[in-house]
Amino acid sequence: GSVVASYPYDDSPTHKPTGVYSKSADDEVFKYLAKAYASHHPIMRTGKPNCPGEEGETFQDGITNGAQWYDVEGGMQDYNYVWANCFEITLELSCCKYPPTSEL
Predict the structure, then answer these.
(1) Which parts of this chain are annotated as the region Disordered (predicted)?
(2) CA atoms within 13 A on the CB side of 12
């Protein structure tokens, strides 16, 4: 987990684990949508989620292209875009995947 708005594509033609910007035909729209959310989130907008073990990880404007961050083959975000013409971004809202009940 992290605190970032991710947009398509999550998969890349090379399937490298990370670092490949996988641009969709609607890349500018997706970046706009991701920035619209991230700019209003107090942590996300800083681009520095400061997650334990990943303190150096940063995201410009609090957003990332999915495949550039890490490649996900067969993800729902890409499937919905390609097959259902659904514009979807993924919001990573916490560094912790399993927070204690008391923190929810």
Answers:
(1) 1-20
(2) 17
